[in-house]
Amino acid sequence: MRIRASLAATTVSGAVALTALLAPAAHAADSPQIPKVFTSKPSTALNAPADDAQGDTQITKVTDNGNKDLVVGVGPKTFSIYVTATDPSGIYSADAMLWHGTSLDSDVDGALYSDTDATCDNWSATSATCKITITATPGTDLYDSALSGKWNVAVYAVGNDGDYVETDVYKNRWVKRAASFSGFNASPEPVSKGQTITVTGTLKRASWTYLKYYGYGSQPVELQFKKAGSSTYSTVKTINSSSTGYLKTTVTASADGTWRFHYAGNSTSSAADAYDYVDVR
Predict the structure, then answer these.
(1) Contact 50, 97 (CB under 8 A)
(2) Helix runs in 60-144, H state only
(3) What's the rounded Cα separation, in Å, for the pair 259 and 149?
């Protein structure tokens, strides 16, 4: 089984309504025939209890995108959600989706879901882990940069006997716009010890609205240094990007090593790093 989701525009402001139906796949005549709609009011608690259930099916674990932020640039990004579930009769299938908004039955403005059935590995007669593969496409699924931020993970599992469990907000996942640096350079190279090194670069982040990278202004960026032979970076100073994302600073050359701009990211944008090795003579 799988959730088949469709989005229909409801207002000129771009708000959308979500209709998510679990339709049975081709199977034996006694297969579960449980129509299911994700329309319950979501809970805000992590690993929230089921919003709807019948029988003794249980979801025991959900791993989405490796439990890491989902970072999307200006091209499609494919990721997976793994749903582990148990039922005394065995697990028939499972499904999952990411949605953005405050209420799954009335206030959804974005959804990421699979167009294909889950693939399930049965670990025993009663448990299985099902893999759901989803592709997030900027300009369509992620149609506006304003969708970056906290999303909700909805999950569903159904047993061979027709029992099921569904949770609208099993956990949250940060979906972020990719950040990067362009034109990063530490110069001159080589440089004499005690001389000035000028470090420049531009911090950019992806626009899902226009499908381009633009300068990201007024952001704190750390200039870090790792001495040759060392495995760790130390922060030398923190500077803010200009309104166009441009960064420029100077330091005194003291030893061979790698200079790095490090941007830690925020609730809407990913972290980013840029590197340049400088030979000090």
Answers:
(1) no
(2) none
(3) 30
Residue 48 in this model has a pLDDT that exceeds 70:
no
Q: Is 210 left (phi over 0), alpha (psi -120 to 50) or beta?
A: alpha
Q: H/E element holding 243? A: none
What six digits make up the tokens of 194?
Answer: 């005690």
User: 169 near 151, Cβ under 8 Å?
Assistant: no
Give the model confidence (pLDDT) of 210-262 as tens digits: 999 999 999 999 999 999 999 999 999 999 999 999 999 999 999 999 999 99
Compute the chain's Rg from CA coordinates. 24
Q: Report residue 266: phi and psi, to 5°.
A: -150, -165
Q: What's the whole-model pTM score?
A: 0.82
DSSP annotation of 146: G
**Helix (H), strand (E) at residue 216:** none
Provide the H-helix boundaries in the chain. none
Strands 164-177, 70-72: pairing is parallel
**Separation of alpha carbons 274 and 260, rounded Å:** 5
The pLDDT value recorded for residue 275 is 98
